[in-house]
Design a protein that fits this description.
It contains four helices and five strands. It is α/β, with parallel strands linked by helices. The chain has one domain. Strands 1-2-3 form a three-stranded parallel beta sheet. A two-stranded antiparallel sheet has the order 4-5. Helix 3 links the parallel strand 2 and strand 3.
Length: 187
């Protein structure tokens, strides 16, 4: 299910459920003799906010609230990164959330990391009596696997090394990672 951003912020049931889950996880860690540390949150969203012109400031507020509330539960002193995957921006050229994520990554690199675009992932989900939904919102199992690999790569680089992100993005093209030489090209 895809929720608009306003349904996930502080004061909503979804936000409260997340904080309750963190409290339960903290209790389980403490009972087992472990300390809890939450270095990052993986964020996959934006599909329902393609036209939301306030996505960037709302995300900054959300991160601040989540960071403060979650650190109070875990007891950690380090801030919590938000690693985001940009949604597929297929919705009639409305890509406010995608551009906001890119701006967050560029303007607040110690809080937000844009790990990868999503337009190239496999969205062909299969449901009973319907061989192909092709809704470009819900990832297939293969799409989820690839998505997880991108998130893992970003997690490792963010927590244990240098952060990474897109070089540039627009509606037609997104160049991510680093430049490389194609041996089939003439020098």
């Amino acid at each position: 299910m895809v929720f608009p951003f306003r349904d996930l912020i502080k004061g909503t049931q979804h936000y409260d459920n997340t904080q309750t889950a963190l409290t339960d996880a903290k209790s389980a860690c403490t009972a087992a003799g472990y300390r809890m540390w939450l270095p990052v949150v993986l964020w996959r969203g934006g599909e329902s906010d393609a036209t939301n012109v306030n996505y960037e400031p709302e995300m900054v507020t959300h991160h601040g609230n989540f960071n403060t509330d979650s650190k109070a539960i875990t007891g950690q002193s380090s801030d919590i990164w938000m690693i985001m995957a940009a949604p597929s921006s297929f919705i009639d050229g409305n890509n406010k959330a995608v551009l906001a994520m890119l701006a967050l990554h560029r303007n607040q690199p110690t809080k937000f990391v844009l790990s990868h675009p999503s337009y190239h992932l496999d969205y062909d989900i299969y449901t009973p009596l319907n061989s192909s939904d092709n809704d470009y919102v819900h990832l297939s199992v293969k799409g989820q696997q690839i998505d997880g690999e991108y998130f893992y790569r970003a997690f490792r680089k963010t927590v244990y090394g240098k952060t990474l992100g897109p070089i540039d993005a627009d509606r037609q093209w997104c160049a991510c990672g680093r430049d490389h030489h194609n041996p089939d090209d003439n020098p």
